[in-house]
Amino acid sequence: MRGLGIAAVVLWTGCGGSPPPTPQEPPEPPAPRILNFYAAPGIVTPGDTSLLCYGVENVDEVRIDPPVRELRPALSRCIPVNPRRETTYTLHVSGPGGEASQSVTVRVDASARPAPPPVPLPEPPPQPEGPRVLSFSGKPETVAPGEGATLCFRIEGGTPSLTPDVAMLGEVPMGCFAVVPQGTTTYTLTVTGESGRTARRSVTVTVR
């Protein structure tokens, strides 16, 4: 009987080490995010085109209601639309982390007049003081109809504005934004300083 008791103690002691590690649960997938969703312009005349621009992340599927075309996830993309009447467009995104949506309304106003085509402005002579356009570029410089390009700028000493007015730049010294030109378009960046002095630079995106 004593031999059985010793064997039992040894067996119990051999099984009494550290418990096996607890398997860790995989982290939850990140929630989908709509970085931006806006219409440019938000008011059009009948037959005119507006751009629905969006940026998303952490998503696998993107769609807009009412349907406009097949979409794909992107950090910056614009889609042309031609609403016949005031229309509310809703962006729906979904991914492993869930779903999200956001809406924007495009108004159709017969009394609204389309903006005149931009007139390229010559660059002013160099000035010893005042605002400066350090860089202004478009990539790619040539696109197919319906495709977009990315315009990037860097300035100092003023507030930027764009002609044609297809994006709100705010009071920032640098940034990038997407455009979808309907035809070959020259974009002019103007920087206005506190003294009223200005600096300009232009970029042309060719549509072929």
Search tags:
208 residues, mainly beta, Immunoglobulin-like, 2 domains, four-stranded mixed sheet
Please describe what this structure looks like.
With 208 residues, the protein is mainly beta. The chain folds into two domains: 76 residues, Sandwich (Immunoglobulin-like); 76 residues, Immunoglobulins (Immunoglobulin-like), CATH 2.60.40. Helices cover 6% and strands 46% of the residues. The strands form four sheets. A four-stranded mixed beta sheet has the order 2-7-6-4, with no helix packed on it. The chain has a four-stranded mixed beta sheet with strand order 9-14-13-11, with no helix packed on it. Strands 1-3-5 form a three-stranded antiparallel beta sheet, with no helix packed on it. The radius of gyration is 29 Å and the shape is globular.
Sheet with most strands = 4 strands, mixed
Q: Would you tell me the overall average pLDDT?
A: 85
- Span between termini: 97 Å
Shape: globular
CATH architecture of the largest domain: Sandwich
| Physical arrangement of strands within the biggest beta sheet | 2-7-6-4
Question: Could you give me the name of the CATH homologous superfamily of the largest domain?
Answer: Immunoglobulins
The number of distinct β-strands equals: 14
Q: What fraction of residues sit in β-strands?
A: over 45%
SSE order, one letter for each helix or strand:
HEEEEEEEEEEEEEE
- Looking at CATH, which topology of the largest domain would you report? Immunoglobulin-like
Low-confidence stretches: 1-14
SSE-based structural type = mainly beta
Total helices: the number is 1
CATH level 1 name of the largest domain = Mainly Beta
Query: If you compute it from the alpha carbons, what radius of gyration comes out, rounded to the nearest whole angstrom?
Result: 29 Å
- Count of domain modules: 2
Percent of residues in helices: under 10%
